[in-house]
TrEMBL record:
The keyword Transcription applies. The lineage of its organism: Bacteria, Pseudomonadati, Bacteroidota, Sphingobacteriia, Sphingobacteriales. This is Helix-turn-helix domain-containing protein. It comes from Olivibacter oleidegradans. The keyword Transcription applies. Residues 182-281 form the HTH araC/xylS-type domain. Pfam families: HTH_18.
Amino acid sequence: MPLNTFPENLSQNKELSIRIVSPEFGHISSEMAVQYGSAQRLPYYFFLFVLRGNSQEVIDGKTIEVGEHELFFALPHQLRQLPTTGHSADYYKLGFDDECLSRLPKKFPFLLNPLNRQKISFPPDAALRLRNTFKILNELLRTADNDPELILAYLNSLLTEINAAYYALHKKHTAAGLDKFLGFKLFVEDNLTDQPAITEIADKLALSTDCLYRIVKQHSGVSPKEFITDRLIMEARRRMYNNQNTSVKELAFELGFNDPSYFSRLFKKVTGKTIAAFYRDLSL
């Protein structure tokens, strides 16, 4: 059973771990906002749909501009910095955790973000459907004891629409290839700090190493080894942000590196910064 990782005081329904925010509803108090600070490692799925205006999101150190009829989404464990500027003119924000997701009747592959896209653009007709579904959820979550099954039905509809839009521009990807890539990505997440060998992953997925290389390259733009390295360095950056007192040696061992010096060189190669420089930037 998935763990409930949604902060209890944020949920807007007695039986579901879910919260929606719109310009006129759902904002937390300034006192509560202070508790979360200027950035947080997300314990839940986060969505921002801009109806009018624009917004700027910073996720894992990357800035993403979100405009009209665009949706930004972030996944559990990603590091999200809170916007320093005002919100867009009209928008919906939505958060829910894996426990809530587990109660839906189907799976949504886009939530693994296999194509490494965190912003989706919607044509007018799809944007209208999305807006209407967000609006209904916004109304349902105004009352804490509303029927959870009704809320889940609209959440399922919302995620179905988003999933279709996510893949709309990538129909060239074959279902089989995408399925294997999702398997690769899941295996990497589950075994990240063990730093599994590419041959081991290929065996688990019943693929040759050449076939695995082609599939990962097609969907991510990098080789399997580069994918794992990038993910390890991203994890290092997240952990450094959460605990700025961690030493290079401790961090290296936590991530499965036996040689802290090699880890330091790899970090600089991938990020362009030394670990010391990254820590200095965090303290500014």
